[in-house]
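Dear V.,

Thank you for sending over the compound details. I've combined the ligand you provided, S-adenosylmethionine, with the protein sequence from our construct and run the structure prediction for the complex. I'm sharing the raw inputs here so there's no ambiguity about protonation or stereochemistry in the SMILES, which I know was a concern on your side last time.
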Amino acid sequence: MSNLFELALICREADVEIVSDALMEVDALAVSVEDADADTDAEHALFGEPGMPAPKAGWDRSVVKALFPSEPEATEAATLILAQDWAGDVHVQAVQAVPEQDWVRLTQSQFAPVEITPEFWIVPSWHEAPPQAQAVMRLDPGLAFGTGTHPTTRMCLRWIATHAQRWPRVLDYGCGSGILAIGAALHGAHDIDAVDIDPAAITSSRDNAAANGVTLTTGLPELARGEYPLVIANILATPLKLLAPLLCAHVAPGGHLILAGILSRQADELKAAYAPWLALEVSDEEDGWILMTATRA
Ligand SMILES: C[S@@+](CC[C@H](N)C(=O)[O-])C[C@H]1O[C@@H](n2cnc3c(N)ncnc32)[C@H](O)[C@@H]1O
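Below is the predicted structure of the protein with S-adenosylmethionine bound, written out as structure tokens.
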């Protein structure tokens, strides 16, 4: 007997973002999209992850799924959605029980140790660290972004690991799970400020730091004060452009700025946004994402 029910909607040329908002309003526990033609950017835009707005031309048939704790709630959500003015192109595919599974084991099976460099690994608590690992970060998936599985996070960590030194101050701006700040601490950094606009990220960073035996100062962005020899921000191209004057002001003379969450095609707009203060260069690339870095004279 299942205790979860899935509502699946077929959307033909519908504005999928509106559909997902409506599902959220009726207490959906999760929404996912299957679209044979969807490119990665389109899926990212729907979920608010790094990426560009979805090209609507690519969405000729999508399936939006939402999970509910009971069948009446799923059916009520379907009725509410189909009654909307914009729902003409939305059809209910199914309201059905989700087969019982060992959800914990299923989740755990999706997270294996992640290699950042041959010596530095991110390892979930239920896994042994690989024997060749010399630096190990213990991190389990949680509410905040940053498990090491995303290319943007991996590129930042790779930069940290290959530029390991006793950084006297570090600013991790948009810390999520705290993964970059903890990575810096494991590679010799001290006095690390990890800030985020999301309170859940601050809590998560604090917990993950404790689990790794490192000390971070965590808080809202106002916590960041003065200049740092190392400033890292893995956010998104648009907020990174808005944050340019602020982030540059935090970089100490001779200090480094490391930016991620940027697609390859966005390199020029980022360079232009930072040009009044710092000369950004592309220093790494993975799966269409780039790492941009600059050093203050
Ligand atoms: C892509 S996640 C990166 C998390 C982690 N640093 C990593 O590299 O995996 C971006 C984080 O930036 C935070 N964020 C977004 N806009 C922000 C802003 N204007 N100021 C501070 N944090 C922000 C989000 O809440 C989120 O936790």
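A first observation: The longest strand covers residues 251-263.

Warm regards,
I. M.
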